[in-house]
Design a protein that fits this description.
Strands 1, 2, 3, 4, 5 and 6 form a six-stranded antiparallel beta sheet that branches. The protein has a domain of about 90 residues: Beta Barrel (OB fold (Dihydrolipoamide Acetyltransferase, E2P)). The chain is elongated. The chain is built from two helices and six strands; from the N terminus they run ααββββββ. Strand 2 and strand 3 form a beta hairpin. About 30% of the residues lie in helices and about 30% in strands. This is DUF3592 domain-containing protein.
Length: about 140
């Protein structure tokens, strides 16, 4: 079965012509969209919180609302302290990088006991040291 040949007639071809004002409006709209996109992206990048700031806010939240308890020192590896503590019969093990606090080198050789501050709504969220408080107890 053969199909008849297809041809375009003049009435089927649509020729669109824009005036200079319409072209200028379209170009300005595209430029405005690109500029707004760039400004939005830069504002979004500036509003992002750095990991150090996020950790500082977490420590400040726990300092303000946290409960205090006793913790046992599990291991020390460079500036990372691993510790365990119990809350309402549940044993938690956590770690904290003390090098991120910006203090001078913390001497961990004499530490034998720890105090921990934890979030009462999420006891796994805990700290043993912040910029304003230290739960390290020396001998």
């Amino acid at each position: 079965m053969r199909l008849p040949p297809f041809s375009l007639t003049d009435s089927m071809i649509a020729v669109t012509s824009f005036t200079a004002a319409e072209l200028a409006t379209a170009v300005l709209a595209v430029v405005l969209m690109v500029l707004l996109s760039i400004l939005g992206y830069r504002a979004w990048q500036r509003s992002r919180i750095t990991p150090a700031e996020r950790e500082r806010r977490r420590c400040a939240w726990i300092m303000a609302t946290g409960k205090m308890g006793d913790a046992a020192l599990v291991e020390i590896h460079e500036n990372i302290v691993y510790y365990s503590y119990g809350v309402r019969g549940v044993e938690y093990t956590a770690s904290q990088d003390l090098g991120l606090l910006g203090r001078a080198h913390v001497d961990l050789a004499d530490v034998h006991a720890l105090s921990v501050k934890y979030d009462p709504r999420n006891p796994a969220n805990s700290i043993i040291m912040s910029e304003d408080w230290s739960g390290l107890r020396a001998r």
